[in-house]
Amino acid sequence: MEGQTRQRTLVLGRITGLYGVRGWVKVFSETEPRENILSYQPWLLGEWCTPCRLAEGRRQGKGLVAKLEGCDDRTRAAAIVGQVISVHRDQLPPAGTEEFYWADLEGLSVETLSGIRLGRVGRLFATPANDVMVVEGDRERLVPFLWGRVVREVDLELGRIRVDWEPDF
Question: Which fold has domain 9-91?
């Protein structure tokens, strides 16, 4: 593999259970809207990112169900329950203006408007009110991702997020 770099992958969901006896599985999706996970091909399953093509997929009740090519019975489907579903980063459409994929923000440096470094984005999570960045530095800070109010600038090329936030908070 010398000279090759492993392509970046992003987790979009996971196989959560069995659906019926013909190889269908239940799918938890982290995409928004949740059905978007069905539009990506191929899915990369598990730790080894095994490529699998989606034969069919649909909304079922409040969730999603899918059938993968070559997975024609309950026994084969049971073997993939619990596997994460990833895709290559370049399979995702470009983010819009002032829109960002969380995965692109993770690891960026976070600093105040006055240039005080708070740390790096460790992860993000959603709350009913707004998304929150977990900034890991001298201590962990939870900084709301409120564009224009708290988050003033995201510069992916410089690897930096500038925030209107008090360092002592």
Answer: Elongation Factor Tu (Ef-tu); domain 3 (2.40.30)
